[in-house]
Amino acid sequence: MHLFLTEPADEPILCDELKRTFVGAETELLAPGLLRTDVQLQSATPPVLAFARQLLPNAEPVNAVSIREWSERLFEAVASRLPESQPWRLHLAAHYGGEGAGGNRVRFIREAFREQLRKRRRQLLRLLEQAETPFHETTSLVQLWLTAPDTGFLSVAPAPTPWQLRRCVWPFVKGELPVASDKAAPSRAFAKLVEAEQRLGLRIAAEETCVDLGACPGSWSYVALNRGARVIAVDRSPLREDLMANPRLTFHQGDAFKFGPEIPVDWLLCDVIAAPERSVELVLEWVRQRRCRRFIVTIKFKGQGDYGKLEPLKHALPPLCKEFFLTRLCANKNEACVAGILPESPPAQPNS
Fold first, then answer.
1. CB within 8 A of 14, min separation 6: which ones?
2. Which of 122, 133, 296, 311 has a CA-to-CA distance to 240 between 20 and 30 Å?
3. Do residue 171 and residue 209 come from a single domain?
4. What is the pLDDT of residues 331-348, one digit of tens each?
């Protein structure tokens, strides 16, 4: 079985998304935000699930009474299923009680497990990575989630499974990232861009050129300018005064959906308030016409009927992008984020 984690209020939305993705999919709610399903995951066509915060592929129920017993269960699974010549990562988390519940238990299990590795499998310990960077094809992932002090679920995903399922298996524990804070930013919206960069594994860099559509009051331009990038900001209203005075910012007053750069830019950034279908069409237009090398765009929802409007992105983007993701960020509210990297050359066209 596979376990999906989502925001506690989003379980019905994820259930609907699973049913759109997998015909006849059946789900079971195991705990708030934790869904079980037995759908078949195909590595050749990995699923894109915007409302799945994290996935535990092929998860198994596990029981243990003591810290030592938990560490032994974990050691047995890792030692028997992981290759001893490739890097791997370990995610341990508690999924019960309130915030912070189970934290000490998880910490003690991790320490006891590492001690087992030191004594019995030093090579596996040397290959254990602490990184949160995107998965490589040779990276394995082990996840243990406790749903109570003595029960939980264990998922062992040998390489290349985490890489193959990277659009819904994240390199962050429980798929979560802390929401960034910066009181100098024009608004809290800057946190969405920062999180999207982390998930994409790329940051806006100095001397790169960004187009920021619907830029006012300027939070996304603020991030790019602080990185030393050049920004073309497009909106009907000007940005905050200090951003407008920045020599690396060019302001175009007008409709964000009608703007097109004279030459391709490094980044398309867009957090504009618009109907979801308009933002979806904008992404596909920019990508198909290769107006940018990378993009980060927010898709905002107005009602429950809008969630299915993400489907065109799931079908159109895989052949057009070198990498992409579509997910509800930790910093998102009633919205999702799509981000991606275009290949250096246009994809080959099928023979007619």
1. 4, 6, 27, 35, 49, 51, 52
2. 296
3. no
4. 999 999 999 999 998 876
